[in-house]
Design a protein that fits this description.
4 domains, single chain, 4-stranded mixed beta sheet, alpha+beta, about 375 residues, Deoxyribonuclease I, Chain A
Length: about 375
Amino acid sequence: MQCYAPTNEATEETKDDFYDQLQMVLEQVPCRDVKIVMGDMNAKVGVDNTGREEVMGKHGVRAEMNENGKRWADFCQANELVIGGTLFPHKECHRRTWRSPDGVIVNQINHLAFSRRWRSSLQDVRVLRGADAASDHHLLMVKVRLKIAKVRKGESGRVRFEVSKLENLEVRSAFKLALRNRFKGLQQLMEEEELSVDDEWRLIEQGYVETCEQIPGRAKANRKEWISKETWEVIEQRKVAKNTRNMARTRKQKRDANQRYQELNREMKRRCRRDKRVYVELEAEKAEEAGKRGDARTSYEITRKLSGRFQNTCTPVRSEAGVLLRSAEEEMHWWGSIFKQRLTTKSRSTRQRWSLMTSLTSGQVTSQALKSRML
């Protein structure tokens, strides 16, 4: 469960509403599941665990427990959770999860609570300050090892290469030269030895793959295709600036490093907006050209990619009380009650819909069939 708690200055009613809602959600989780509650709790728990030894350890940040910290500790104690950030000894900088925008105040307000029953599976909880997400919060990492059934790994997925580098004339020439040299030796081998068709194809495939590994290289995962190379360089510079800010010791060094980081962050955002605009314009031109030549498939794929809409999405359904419906039968009965409230039996078309709702509540049709017939 990922959550965001009110600040310590919020009203008591707001805090009560938040923890009541969190408690209601937590109660819906089966007891056999591993429960992880994490997020920005705006809670200072400190290092004094007197009376709360089962909930927290002695390795928190040296600070006085505030009101939000007491609420968070009481919530964990009532639900048999342990506060992971206080269990493992780390440097002070690897326990502080938040830094104020001016870079002066640092504290531990982001927390991760883990099921006490599975405490032995919790290996480590610490802050990764090097991860750059353009936020005043640091990334909180948890290492968990569960003893589960062994799953045999299948074959690795398809390898993607950075083919966009071949647009550069120098890279393309080097790739052609390397491929030509490799196939000269392969041709001599085929002439000297009698190879089967499968062996020849295996050698040809191996030649292409090894050449692509050397020249273009593999494509880096999770990289946005619309971000330019210059923008990625600024992102790398921003990452170095954040590391410099984390390692600063004096106030002047912290102030200068923070100013440098903010400048690079603004520059990165400007470049990303520009790259996104250029990318959308180019893709729109491709879709327009595809439409002119009658290529509806390409035009549709580009439109869907730019709009960000995908099919076969599944949205969870909640009852009127806000409880998440977990089975198909509960969802069908819920939809049936909703349509019974909305529809009347005045017209023929309405009577047809009423019969469809009756068959839905009785389990004769599925919700997907309902959607297709209603539309």
